[in-house]
Amino acid sequence: MELNAFLDRISEPARRAIEQLRCTKLEDLLRYSDKELLALHGLGPKTIRLLNEFLDENMIDRNPRKSALLVIDVQEALLDENPHNKEELIQNINTLIRLYRSKKHPIFFIRHDGGNGDTLAYGEDGWQIAKAMDYKDEPIIDKRFNSAFKDTNLESSLQALKINHLILAGMQTEYCVDATLKSAFEKGYQCVVVKGCTSTVDNPWLKADQLIDFYEQAIWPNYAEIIQVNELK
Predict the structure, then answer these.
(1) Rounded to an integer, what distance in angstroms lies between the CA atom of residue 89 and that of residue 71?
(2) Which of 21, 60, 77, 87 could cysteine-pair with 119, CB 3.0–4.6 Å?
(3) How high is the pLDDT of residue 56?
């Protein structure tokens, strides 16, 4: 019904072009991007404008949110460093994991390999996903760089699931969480960081709580929505 209502608004050449796609419902049509639709002979910018107006009038979301949770580098060696608010961090991240699992949303655990001699060296005890995490059988993405997207199959895995929205949590705030967030932003994902779900340790210049506040208040709002745990539904 919705598709026919839209087709009644457009020109005959535009209707014929859309009929070539063999769409039987509006949802079928919305699988195509504006660029793909404009490539069809008989469609033009006016048809795209009419389509978007029709969606707005009927309160139809053209790109419904498909969300995944990234749990970044919560590994034994990093928890052994006693990051800021360690127990709260564990509790909050497990809350996110259980929420996403209950909704059957995808969860990806990210695991860093620091190389030979590092506390996060591949296969060592410190490299393992922390036992404190409520990990079950979710996929693990192994990485060697700060960004979870660099030389991994994370992006292809997200694309296969048509994910367009990411919740980021884990460690460390100023390193792998920050790098992954900025990579995700550049790739077009809608991103959210939940307060109390990332952490780090003191460094020679700043205390851990200062670092977390700095990124949550000054840096990350340029790339993501920053919310409280109880705001996530």
Answers:
(1) 12
(2) 77
(3) 87
Give the ranges where the chain is alpha helix by DSSP (H): 2-7, 12-19, 26-29, 34-38, 45-57, 76-80, 86-102, 154-160, 178-186, 208-214
161-179 pLDDT tens trace: 989 999 999 999 999 999 9
Question: Pick from 69, 98, 74, 97: which is nearest to 170 by CA?
Answer: 74
- Picking from 57, 83, 102, the residue at the C-terminal end of a domain is 57
Report the candidate in 96, 111, 107, 97 with the shortest Cα–Cα distance to residue 227.
96
| Residues spanned by the domain of 38 | 2-57
pLDDT recorded at residue 1: 56
| Residue-by-residue DSSP string for 49-82 | HHHHHHHHHTT--SS---EEEEEE--BHHHHHT-
Overall domain count for the chain: 2
Percentages (nearest 5) of helix, strand, coil residues in the chain: 45, 15, 40
Q: Are 228 and 216 in contact (CB under 8 A)?
A: no
Q: Is residue 62 part of a domain?
A: no
Q: Are residues 115 and 142 located together in one domain of the fold?
A: yes
Residue 91: asked if its preceding bond is cis (omega within 30°), the reply is no
**Are 129 and 75 spatial neighbours (Cβ–Cβ below 8 Å)?**
yes
How does pLDDT run across 54-108, given as a tens digit for each residue? 988 888 877 778 999 999 999 999 999 999 999 999 999 999 999 999 999 999 9
Q: Return the closest-CA partner of residue 2 out of 51, 63, 66, 65.
A: 51
